[in-house]
Write a structure and sequence with these properties.
With 268 residues, the protein is of the alpha+beta class. The protein has one domain. It starts with a strand and ends with a helix.
């Protein structure tokens, strides 16, 4: 399988690249490599920590705050997968964090289908649902990322729609609240790769998303490779109990509520 490496995007070259890649045909396939960085939010607890303690905590949680991914795509399908790393805390995989992290994700733009694998306390699930609806507002602001001219788009979407696989103890205390938490998304996409794919839950723009920020997290593309000879295989998660996003969230909340109640009984 032959690849043409179109660009390598590194921080040092974000604003200094002087070459623009030619647009590609929609029928090609390829891979995009991303890395994410999340700012650590310690809330009120952080106010009682020294700077040295904060740096130590950030170092111990580095694998949760900095991750790398691969997006494999063709015209209509994509598969987004995190590259597994050892946990800096114990030298093993981050099993606790894995319970509430995004699993392998398949998206089909033709029929707006999401299929995602999740593992929760040893049990595997295959979540099948619709892709989240994102009402993008496209603007004229541009910037160059590597060899690609990118356009800015923004959107606002319920936070739970983006982070449905995650869990916070506030999910239990605020379960009856009518207030909906919203997240603002800022994305940069390129028309030189005229495919509606993007990393994670982001999709639906007229070009590949190379950078996206929401909340404390930014996801950046570091490299793109285009396959001009044959189509890259697109994996579809298929191991585990099939369910919907709503039912999966119900399972997680019930398990976490049972854990909280058990802990409270032991303390009393």
């Amino acid at each position: 399988m032959k690849y043409w490496i179109l660009s390598t995007i590194v921080i040092a070259s974000f604003f200094y690249a002087d070459k623009i890649e030619k647009p590609i045909d929609q029928s090609v396939s390829g891979k995009a490599y991303y890395y994410s960085k999340t700012k650590m939010d310690l809330g009120n607890w952080g106010a009682r920590m020294s700077e040295a303690q904060k740096k130590q905590m950030a170092s111990r949680l580095k694998n949760r705050l900095e991750k790398t991914y691969i997006l494999t795509f063709n015209q209509y399908e994509s598969f987004f997968k995190e590259e597994e790393k050892l946990d800096a805390i114990g030298g093993a995989t981050d099993t606790w964090g894995a319970n509430f992290s995004r699993g392998d994700q398949y998206k089909n733009l033709r029929d707006s289908t999401l299929i995602q694998s999740q593992e929760f306390y040893g049990k595997r699930f295959v979540i099948k649902d619709e892709l989240p609806k994102i009402n993008w507002v496209k603007g004229n602001e541009t910037k160059q990322i590597g060899n690609y001219l990118c356009f800015k788009a923004v959107a606002t979407i319920p936070t739970e729609t983006l982070n449905w696989y995650n869990f916070s103890w506030n999910d239990l205390t605020n379960s009856d609240s009518e207030e909906v938490s919203m997240s603002t998304i800022e994305a940069w996409y390129t028309l030189q790769i005229p495919l509606g794919h993007g990393p994670a839950e982001f999709w639906g723009l007229p070009g590949l998303v190379l950078e996206v920020s929401t909340g404390n997290t930014t996801i950046l593309c570091s490299e793109i490779s285009i396959n001009t000879n044959s189509s890259d295989p697109i994996d579809i998660p298929n191991k585990g109990e099939e369910t919907s996003i709503a039912n999966y969230r119900k399972v997680v909340k019930e398990r976490m509520e049972a854990m909280r109640n058990s802990y409270s009984r032991r303390r009393n």
